[in-house]
Amino acid sequence: MGNKTTILIILIAYMLLNVVVGIWVSRRSAKENAEGGFLQNYFAGGRSMGGVVLAMTLVATYTSAGSFLGGPGLAASVGLTQSWIAAVQTGTAFLTLGVIGKKLGIIGRRINAVSISDYLRARYKSKAVVILSSLALLVFFTTQMVAQFIGGATLLESLTGLPYKVGLLIFALVVVIYTAVGGFKAVVITDTIQGFIMTTGTFLMIFFVLKAGGGLESLVSKLSDVNPGWDLMGKGKFGSDIPSLQPGFLLSYWVLVGIGVLGLPQTAVRGLGFKDTKSLHRAMIYGTLVVGVLMIGMHFIGTLAAPLLPKGGVETTDKVIPYVVMNYMPSWAAGVFLAAPLAAIMSTVDSLLILASATIIKDLYLNYISKKASKKTPINKEEGGKRIAFYSFGLTAAIGIVVFIFALNPPDIIVWINLFAMGGLEATFFWPLIGGLYWKRANAKCCIASTIVGLVTFILFSQVISTPLGVHAIVVALFASGLAFAITGLLTKEKPDAEILKNCF
Questions:
Q1: Phi and psi (nearest 5°) for 401?
Q2: Directed axis angle between helix 51-62 and helix 331-358, to 10°?
Q3: What is the pTM of this model?
Q4: Could you give the CA distance from residue 455 to residue 480 in angstroms, rounded to a whole number?
Q5: Residue 407: which residues within 8 A CB-CB, separation 6 or more?
Q6: Are 335 and 10 in contact (CB under 8 A)?
Q7: What are the tens digits of pLDDT across the range 39-84?
Q8: What are the residues whose beta carbons fall under 8 Å from the beta carbon of 213, sequence distance 6 or more?
Q9: Which residues pair with 49 in a beta bridge?
Q10: How far is CA 427 from CA 138, 259, 266, in A?
Q11: DSSP 8-state secondary structure symbol assigned to residue 494
């Protein structure tokens, strides 16, 4: 049996495992849906995540194919600079759960929230805020999901020989089925599996790269010959020609992948699903350790892999890790490792998919469409519950189908669109979340001003105007939106609503 066949069997078996888990979770949740309510279970998992599950689902949602392919591949060219960039992401889980998670979880229980828009509605009491944030979320989430669908299909195509469209169909079916059927619980449980797979894959890569290179000392001695300056910031092979490795961008990039992640709704929403404070504190520790292993481990081993590449190099940095896997790892280990980037892609997609579905069903349909319709034609609670369940299953599947169609003809600039979408989400949600949680005078006008200024500034400085000192556009956007948020709040001088103070502080 050839390498590609063995790898294909392992990857398909892994994807089928996720489908089986999704169906099992769906059946197990049937009784819970009756007791706790469909929406609470489908979109928030009944707020039952323990420490390990919460940590793994947060890590799995945050990581993507770039954590295993693009980033480590670039590290093979530019050296330890890429590892230094990745290191700041180690605190992501601790920062997200510590700054947002606990407070958001407490408030979520008071107001019965299952989505970020639920929180924004209760905090700002504004239809405009909810609709504006929901539309931004849907646009940027769809863009990110298209990129991840393409990544999953490309991975299957390049490593197993499957045609791109066949790989895309397999990937789409697996993710859409277990997410649509199982809901939030299926997402977090499969994310937990994927978190362990990613960790295992990282250790396998470290072991086989060190083995192939004759040990750490041997690899380091060869690095100075094949990649001079590999251990210097912003240096390394081709490093001086890459704008993203200049000091201004390097420092500001830490905002995008560091503190800026507090504005990502797909990670913030995890704060609504933990079981208790003890679980949250454990997740902060577990999550920090796992992110550190994944990010630092994979990027460091990418740096060490440079001597293992052919003299002429590989076609692109994205193909560095696949080359090492296919040439220096046995087929069984290659299959397990390649399940790691596939797991990263799947875990990102399922989280975006369930949150996009929640936005449409819970935040838009139930609050602004269903209420008006029910006044004209009242329906009983049981019938309404069944209808919402049917709509939720169907809509989750429908969003997946739309993303699949967009991914059939992938644009060449999809990687940059994905990064743009991440910055757009941070520009939209960072200050409404942070300001809303910690500033009592924050109001709907603050939120709207911040969102509009943040999005406009981010688009201008990322697409039209050059940023000062080469910093990333997100730095300018967060600074401008923060000013808009604070100035608007100070000028409006609205007295905090008593109900908002009771529920949110």
A1: -65, -40
A2: 90
A3: 0.80
A4: 10
A5: 146, 149, 150, 153, 168, 172
A6: yes
A7: 555 555 556 677 787 888 778 777 776 778 777 888 888 888 777 7
A8: 219, 222, 304, 307, 308
A9: 274
A10: 14, 12, 14
A11: P
